Predict the structure.
Amino acid sequence: MEPETGIAIAAQAMVGAALIVMAIGSILLIKRLSELSPSGWWGVALGIVFAFLTGVALLLPSTSHWLTTYLSPLFPDGLVESEIAEFAWISAAIVAPFAAIAVCLLISAAIEMPSRADLEHRVAAHRRTLEKLRETRKDLEERVAVRSREVYEAKKRLEIALRDTNITVSMQDLSLRYVWIRNAPSGFDAQYMLGRTDDEILPNKTSEETMSLKQRVIDTGEEERGQVIVQNGHQLRYFDLTAEPYHNEDGSIAGILSIAVEVTEQKEREERLRSVLREMSHRSKNTLTILLGIARQTAQRSKSLSEFLASFDARLRALVGSQDLLVEHDWRAIPLDELVRTQIKPYLDGAERRLHLEGPSVRIRAEPAQNLGLALHELARNAQRFGALSDTKGQINVFWTLDPADDPNTLKITWQEKDGPEVSPPTSPPGFGQTMTERILARALDGNAVINYLPEGVVCKIDVSMAHVET
């Protein structure tokens, strides 16, 4: 081999190897590029192919001698070197047009690539955009924080406003399923109600009426009001319901907003008031009947207007005393000992030691208590005028007994006067007191009443039906 030929082949080999290394390096570098246009990418790709093929073409002549030397035993006819050389030049010729095209595309790509100034301008623009995005993000975060605080404060104000009240606020979608609820009524679980309709929560009849009212709101877009009655065990619960639509931004109906106010206590108060008014009317009629009877009986037995006024006033005060006791005990049964003391006390002149009471704790119901009070008043008034209270030594004992073995249906009351002046039976027709006790009182108590005028003192025995007694 000629020296110059050897140098040329070595040079070709070095250039070919360099081109192959450049192609491999370009492949590694291209992975880091991200801003080339599609044509630029094709140019770079073809450039890499060109470099690789050119390197191979240049390496083939330099390696043909090596191949011929080591492979000649396999080809004794000496065809290897010529065929390899021919293949190398043919490959170089084929690669040459592609190389030209690749160079043109690379130049085009290079022209399209931005300059350093352009890159710096783009970076600066990107930085400004990033800064604006940061400012926008900060502003949005501040707005979201402010809005979140407003929503939280509104929620807290609503919770505070609804706390310890009987007001429930809720929202339902177009299918009338609960999506939001605050201050659910006692006995209802808000978490359970979410996602359900009223017909899944309330009794059938109640749910039908409620669903119908709310559906009308969705159909008409108008507010609806109504009363909902819920059966809760043996108790009826009442709710005043107001439902109105709420809308999307485009004005379409998104669902309904409802406010339910439980008015059960108000209904119960109204019912109690009606009951009290009915009772007052009944009692007023009874009182008027008693007053008319007192007035009529007093007038028949009075010899003058002054005597009538004095007697009527005393009996009216006795009736008022009994009613004061009834008011004090909410017009329920009153203790018998209190009734006795109230009627006798005005005639004791402060000497309450002259009155002795004994008996178990019992109460007399309202209507018979008024009649019994009048009878006790008449006995005490007669005792002051003619009996044990007409002097300073007389005593009055009032005792009562319950004897289930002897008579389980009767309360026995005994009025006994002693240590007073000797008593004589009346010679004139029975007065108001005796008539009141033995006739009117006996009927009112569904029992019996008898006055005995014993020389040592008056004794009155009164039997009261247990239907008028509370123990």
Q: What stands out?
A: DSSP finds eleven helices and 13 strands in the chain.
